[in-house]
Amino acid sequence: MTKLRVVIADDQPMMRAGFKAVLEATGDIEVVAEAGNGEEAVRAAGEHSPDVVLMDIRMPGLDGIEATRRLPRQRVLILTTFGLDQYIIEALRAGASGFLLKDSPTSEVVAAVRAVAAGDAVLSAAVTRQLLDQVARRLPAPVARRLDEPDPLTEREHEVLRMLANGLSNAEIAEALVVSEATVKSHVSHILGKLGLRDRVQAVIYAYETRLITPAD
Q1: DSSP classification of residue 217
Q2: pLDDT in tens, 77-96
Q3: For tag attachment on the chain, is the N or C end more exposed, with fewer CB atoms within 10 Å?
Q4: E-strand spans in the chain?
C-alpha cells in the first residue's frame, strides 16, 4: 500500500510531534519530514516531494504564506490557531488548498490531509462562506475586463461558479440545476482550467475579487 507523504511545518516541536503521532497512527500516512520555519518547509518539500504540506501560517523568518507561494507543485494545508486568522485569505490566494485549526479533532485532521491529497479543498460550505464574508471587504477593487476581451466562462459556468461561491456543494448544485453530480464536476473542472485556478477555494476567491458575488448576495 502506498502511503500518503506529508511534511509538517510548525515552529513548535510539540505541535509537530502531536500532528505526526495523529497522522502516522492511521497506518496509511507517513510524515517524511518536519520543518521549524518556512525555509525549511520549502527545502523539505523539494527533497521529499510530499503529497501534502501541513504549514503553520506564522513562523520565524519565511512565514507560511511566502513558503506556500514557493510551493506551486505541492498541496498545502494551512495550520492556524484562530478560525478567522487575518492572514488566511492571503494564504489561500498564495495557493493553499484550505486551512485547519490546530485544535481540530484528530478525525478532522486525518480527513483534511486525505482530502487535500485527493485534490479537494478543505473548506466546508459553511466555513467557506463565513471566512469569505469576513474578509471580502478587505479584497482589492476588481480589475474591470476590457470590453473587447471575451468572457472565458459560459453562462452556465458563471451560474455554477456563483453557486459554488455561495457555499453549495456539488450535490446541491446538481440538485438546483437538475443535472448529475458528474456534470457539475465537469463544469467546475472547466472553470478552473479556463481561469487558471488550482481548486475550488481559489475559484471562490476569484468570484469575490471580480464581484461576481458579494457578501450581501
Answers
A1: -
A2: 988 876 555 676 777 778 88
A3: N
A4: 4-9, 29-35, 52-56, 75-80, 99-101
